[in-house]
Amino acid sequence: MGFNMNTHSNRRRTFWVVLAVLGAALSCGDSDDTPLGSQFIGDLLGSEPGTVYEDTFQMAGGDTSYVFYSMIDKQDYLEVGQDNGYIRTALLRPNFSSAGDDNLKTVDIADLRLIKIEIDQYVDNVTARFYELGQEYNEGDSLESLDTTFVIPDTTGALDRELKLFPPNYPLPPDLVQSWIRGEVPANGIAIIYGDNVDEVFGVWSRTGNTPPTVQVNFTDGSETSYPIIADGIYTRPTVPTANLVISDGFVRRIHFPVDLSEIDDSVAVHEARLVLTYVPGSLFGISQSVLLYAPNSSEPDSPEFFEGQLITQKTLDESAGTLELKITNVLLGVLSGELEDNGFVLRYLNENSEVRQAEFYSSADPDRGPRLHITFSTPADFEE
Amino acid sequence: VTVNALRRTRRWLLSLLVALLALASGWGNAEADSKWALVFLGDRVWSGDIRAVGLGSDMQLIEDSLALQLNPATTANVNKFTFAADGYFSSDRGSSEEFNETDASFTFSSFIFAVPLLKRLSVGLGYRGRYNAPSGIVFIDETDGGKAFGQFYSRSGGLISFPFLAGLRVTSYLQLGGTISIERGNYENSWRIEFQDPTYNVALSTQTWDMKGTGYSAGLVLRPPGGLSLGVTWESEIEYDTDVREQFTNPISNKKYNETSLLPERWTVSGLWQFHRKLALYGTWSYSDFTKFSGMAFLSDRLYEQHFISGGFEFLRAIPMRKSRLPIRLGASFTQLPYDNPAGTRVDSYLVDLGSGWISRSGKAKIDITLQGGVTGSVETNGLENRVFRIYIGLSGAEEWRRHKQTEF
Questions:
Q1: Least confident interval from A34-38, A378-382, B223-227
Q2: Contact B96 A25 (CB under 8 A)
Q3: Are A283 and A245 in contact (CB under 8 A)?
Q4: How far apart are CA B176 and CA B223, in angstroms?
Q5: Which end of chain B is more exposed for a tag (fewer CB within 10 A), N or C?
Q6: H/E stretch holding B26
Q7: How far is CA A346 from the centre of its chain?
Q8: What pLDDT shows up at residue B279?
Q9: Could you give the residue ranges of the DSSP H alpha helices within B29-60?
């Protein structure tokens, strides 16, 4: 980056002329009252104002999208399918801790009961497979990948299932469920993985929804027990990679912008500073597009301090604007003055892990459309000692 | 006796009230907000008196109590407890061919207590405070991107002085006096860069000076027979110990340091010729060698000796008003400022004054008014000039003065 220092010679000349006039204009005429004396304070006022600069420079590089493998686990719905380049997988972990005497019984029939949400955005049915998770799932977990070694077939031995409105019961192997009840095999959870390659999403109520999913078990003695789901969530993954900077939710990605301020004098005052990002056309989707920019306490995404810092600004993404401009005036001054550590800036969605959404921006690899820092600053006044 | 005591008490309360009002008008500003740069060069704390202004300024032979501070030898005139207070505000509007308008205003307050200590020796304690309100200029510019901004320069400041005076009447014709004064000053010099777009942050750079010093003065007054009087005053140089503090929007550049500033000594000579019971002529000359000035980043090679010359005429009973007659005062002054203008030419200042006044029958209150006009610099010589018009109004309250010495209005 490089600043185009403005030529201020003409302005400087004008300055002195006006200043000279001022000296007389302020004169009061009395011998004891000598404002013209100010002309001698460092040639006139004894000080010079700071010089104002305005410049835009490209980010030096290092702008990166970091992935955080958290999931959507606080919503009233679970989704299975794919859309806008993201596959959704529903995860559910049944809880058999209340089985009691049931572990002495024999399972006759077992079903996973899922109630479809009837809204337009969800299709009537999709093809999916049930997998037994290789590790226990708890809400809040970060899962980099799913262990999908064991498929849970239906009672006929079929691997693929059709998720649909009715009937809402999806058979599970009785012996598997019985081993879960008896604690012979840990009930780590069930992953419902979409089994097709069409943009469609099937939605069911989650454990916090109107009609929560359950595992319905009928025993050979005629008794019946409904076991609740103790943890559920939507595991989301993109279907295609991108070289652009991506901010996304569901599959959480944050963009980190390191800023090289070495060419700006530490003593300057920042009047206005903006981080300008250019949208990749057609890349934005999702209902809620509120984002926030913060200055992290660490520049290392693996550090817990990366997730803490000072809020800089909040914005709502609008792809039609062409660019996203984020004001960083005060925080940049804080960094220059040493009040804040220079760890760059991080852009993330507001209320992460709430829905599948994303936006892409051109990275610094694109010299014309990559991130830019637009800054207007001034040097401090020079008071002569 | 009781009635007289009540009247005396009432008079004292009134005097005290006037003093407090006068102090309130200037003390707070001078001490708390006081900023100074605008007036430092050549500016001691003015020994103000509106009547003296009407006679050309710096006149030290008039016998109003506030004028005691002009020449400490006049303190010897005090033969009973004397008190006076004064406060006023002045606003100057300057203009030139190249500059539209500016305002420069200041407040001034002054009081003095004086008491006869011995038969021929009187002493006093005074206060003078002056505060120049913020005034400045703005330079409009814009960035390469077309964003308009202004660079606002502002400065303000004040001085206060606490003189301890003593005056000795050596003979009927000679009085001597001296002063020790505690001098304090403070000023603020600031630059503010502000954009037209209110979403842009303001950048502020401020330099503050806190100054401490001690001053001395000595004076004599000769009053030979024949209506002639002569006064001479010497005011010592004042070395100010100055704490400077610079603060910026970006605090990384903040700093503090100490400096010394030296204000050169000044000599003032005044003459009075009362050639008629109702008519008097005044004249004053003062001199200060500002080449000896130092501090505050002034360039010494552009400093000069300063000469101030003034003259005044007073017609004591000129304007009839009810049962009294008001005086008319005419004054004029010339100063060659102790520094040149940016082009290197010397700057002259001419002022004319027209004043009058009214004193209560009891002699315990007076009002003075003076109109002042003039010009500083000239377009032909300096490339710029400034025209001045001022209205001075002074209100004073005083305990009974030596009636046989009191100037007749």
A1: A34-38
A2: yes
A3: no
A4: 12
A5: N
A6: helix B2-28
A7: 9
A8: 92
A9: 50-54
Nearest to B45 by CA among B70, B16, B81: B70
Q: What is the pLDDT of residues B392-404, one digit of tens each?
A: 777 665 554 444 4
Residue A84 touches chain B, beta carbons under 8 Å? no
Question: A340-344: long-range contacts (C-beta < 8 A, 24 or more apart)?
Answer: A340/A295, A340/A310, A341/A297, A342/A259, A342/A261, A343/A258, A343/A295, A343/A296, A343/A297, A343/A298, A343/A299, A343/A309, A344/A62, A344/A256, A344/A257, A344/A258, A344/A259, A344/A295, A344/A296, A344/A299
| pLDDT on residue B14 | 56
Determine the residue type at B406.
Q
**The pLDDT value given to residue B102:** 53
CB neighbour list of residue B409: distance below 8 Å, 6 or more residues apart: B316, B317, B324, B325, B326, B327, B357, B358, B359, B366
**Separation between Cα atoms, residue B303 and residue B309, nearest integer Å:** 19
Whether residue B225 contacts residue B231, with contact meaning beta carbons closer than 8 Å, is answered with: no
Alpha carbons A268 and B250: distance in angstroms, whole number: 6
pLDDT (0 to 100) of residue B74: 87
In this prediction, residues B307-335 reach a mean pLDDT of 88
CB A362 within 8 A of CB A280: yes
**Tens-place pLDDT, residues B161-185:** 899 999 999 998 999 999 999 988 8
| Ramachandran angles phi, psi of A33, nearest 5° | -115, 95
Residues constituting chain B: 409
Q: How far apart are CA B177 and CA B371, in angstroms?
A: 31
Joined tokens for residue A120: 């337009």
The answer to whether the Cβ–Cβ distance between B203 and A378 falls below 8 Å is yes
In whole angstroms, give the CA distance from residue A69 to residue A248. Answer: 11
Burial string for B202-234 (b: 16+ CB within 10 Å, else e) reads: ebbbbbbbbbebebbbbbbbbbeeeeebbbbbe
CB-CB neighbors (< 8 A) of B37 in chain A: 38, 41, 45-46
Any B CB within 8 A of A43 CB: yes
Residue A216 neighbours by CB distance under 10 Å: 18
The one-letter code for the residue type at B31 is E
Among B35, B107, B201, B261, the strongest candidate for a mutation testing the A interface, having the largest count of A CBs within 10 A, is: B201
Question: For A25, which of B94, B190, B337 is closest by C-beta distance?
Answer: B94
Query: Residue B264: pLDDT above 60?
Result: yes
Residue-wise pLDDT for A339-373, tens only, equals 999 999 999 999 999 999 999 999 999 999 999 99
Give A306 to chain B, closest Cα distance, Å. 26
Interface test with B, best of A8, A13, A271 (most B CBs within 10 A): A271
The pTM assigned to this predicted structure is 0.74
d(C-alpha B106, C-alpha B132), whole Å: 4
**Inter-CA distances, A61 with A57, A245, A290, A367, Å:** 12, 12, 25, 10
ipTM over 0.90: no
| DSSP element (H, E) containing B35 | none
* A265 in contact with chain B, both atoms CB, cutoff 8 A: no
Name which of A326, A317, A321, A249 is nearest A295 in CA terms.
Answer: A326
User: In A, which residues are within 8 Å of B149 by CB distance?
Assistant: 52, 271
DSSP characters over A301-344: TTSGGGG-EEEEEEEE--GGGSEEEEE-HHHHHHHHHTSS----
